[in-house]
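Collaboration report, partner site 2.

Our partner group contributed sequences for two proteins of shared interest, and the home lab folded both. The records are reproduced in the order in which they were received, starting with the first partner submission.
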Amino acid sequence: MRLFSLYDETTYLIIMILAWLFHVVLEGILGLRFRDIHVLGDAFHGFLHILALAFSLYARLKPTFLNSESLFTYGTFRLETLAAFSNVIFLFFVNLFLFFRSIHSNIEQLFEESGTTESQVEAIANKILLGVCVFRIILDGIGIFLFRKYKSIKTKSDEVSKTSCFGAATDCIATTLLGYASDDTFSFNSKSENLHAVFLHFYLDLLAALSVLAAAYFPFELWLLHSEVILALLLLFITISVSKELFLETGTILLQGAPKSINIDKIHSEINEISYIEGVLAIADTKVWALYSSFAVCYLKLKLRNEEDARRVKPHATEKLKSVCQQVFIECEI
């Protein structure tokens, strides 16, 4: 355990990307050698994982090479938020791709002639795929261990939100698998959002590899659907469940909104109190957004009677808003 404490998450990410690259190159060579589209398809799937993880690594490394104060108004915090959002989108579509690939495989099996026998090349290719799954399980297990502290969302419940039947089902799965519920509030910073997405990569790929092994060694059918299709559909549903909250949080941040990590009711309550301060004629404009999770920014435009009121009201209003926001901008209009 002491060895792992010597390195940070960026180093772990570099090591895991290199390990994945070795795995993908080896699988691609074997797929070309035996001319098997399934092995090559799995190598392509692994390559997509590398691209997504490489973007997470880029988001971690890029700020060290930039003068963020001169190039970016708010620094480079949102680069990791963007990486987290992109990774969630990727996870959904890559599992959707696996689902459609399993349907294609199912159709092939349904139209096979009952008398056909598996060729030697196909038998070798199937053994390669199963071996690759075992290697991926080991690789993903290491990734899960290295990023285990980013497994779940640190929660601080404020209120319980109403959800649909689908939402309730996905919340139940997310709570069971990762230990959080969607009616809880994020307390992530941008780094944690990004690394939580990295954890989800290894976690969901581990489930995908296990589902392939389960379909190979414990085959079953349901309404003409083979076990591979059913397990791929289940994996797609799990992907939505465990990544939904991260998608909503990061998406809202990138749209300059106030995500669940921001207590918008408390902010509006403080703004309402400011409107009753002596000298304030009206609140002309209000804007609240998040720079990243749990970092609220508020802009307030006040209409005041005179300069004396502006000098008195502005520090008081700033102090009140800073109790609920991390950054405050107040403009006074006489």
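Second partner submission, folded after the first:
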Amino acid sequence: MALMVERARRLGWILLKAVLRFSFMVINNLVAIPSYVLYLIVLQPVRLMDSDTFWYIEGVMFKWLLAMVSSWGWAAGYTVMEWGDDVRPISEDAAVVIANHQATGDVCTLMMCLQDKGTVVRKMMWLMDHVFKYTNFGLVSLIHGDFFIRQGKAHRDKQLFLLKDHLDKYYHSRDRKWIVLFPEGGFLRKRRETSQSFSKKYNLPFLKHVTLPRMGATEVILKSLGPQQENGSLAGGDATRSASKSKGLQWVIDITIAYTKAKPMDIQTWILAYRSPTVTHVHYRIYPIKDVPIETEPLTNWLYQRFVEKEELLAHFYETGAFPPPKGQKEAVSKEMTLDPVWLVLIQSFAFASGYMWYNILQYFYYVFF
């Protein structure tokens, strides 16, 4: 009897917490997103006179919005442990980020772990499935200049053409640096069986923890944004970072996301927090762009090899609870990514104060004109 009472209390607390968190996040969205849009409407004269300043301000507010989303998970005890290469020294360089994709929580995880990487979040561009366009954050992403891609063979050629056009129009004009994509083209649970069948048919690597990547978007990005080709590879990516910022992509950053007990986190968990506090592990590996082939077949082989490496990393992690150490080292070093609670409180305070201000301004104009 006592055990049943304890379970009932625990379930009641989980439900109450979920309702309170959901209510807060609805209100959070209702004040923050309209405020972001209204500020940018008012700043349109600045966009006409000095577009660099306009997109700087937009980028700062975009980072704040992503920090709010990050704070939802962080407050629930969903933290990030980082492994591998240190990406901070290249945070101001142009780079393409390739990440494995297991669930909607992958996006939230990246939103969190990139917050302390200089101007990365402010200047980043996302490639995501078109369904995200219809979420609460879709309007923000549209304004920021992210690209929503529709999956499927029937849309492939048109989508790749639209992606190239999008990059030509917005990447340099808005001073974007890191461009983030998920080359697998879908969640692991949805694509694994198809990927494994394809692997068997064409004698390709058989993968369990990731799927074979799709090449289209990656190839378009590298050809559109990469520096001048040299011997079938992209030039650049050496130690002269500061002198090469305007010369196109300089790095490929390979991010591998691993969840405790191989249980991916979705956006519902991030919002409602019905899972116990947990740590998501993120592994970074950096490749100079000069080492990346540009022709279709070599690039395909290169990208396949990266996902074979992801498979090995994840297999090792799920077996041992840690990523393997880099070559030449005996032990892998990890570091917990933290968010500044004071900064988060200030951002949330600004959002609610802005919402209150815009509500009163709009109410005033409504009474004046109607």
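Feedback sent to the partner group on the second submission included the following. The CA atoms of residues 205 and 305 lie 9 Å apart. The longest strand covers residues 278-288.
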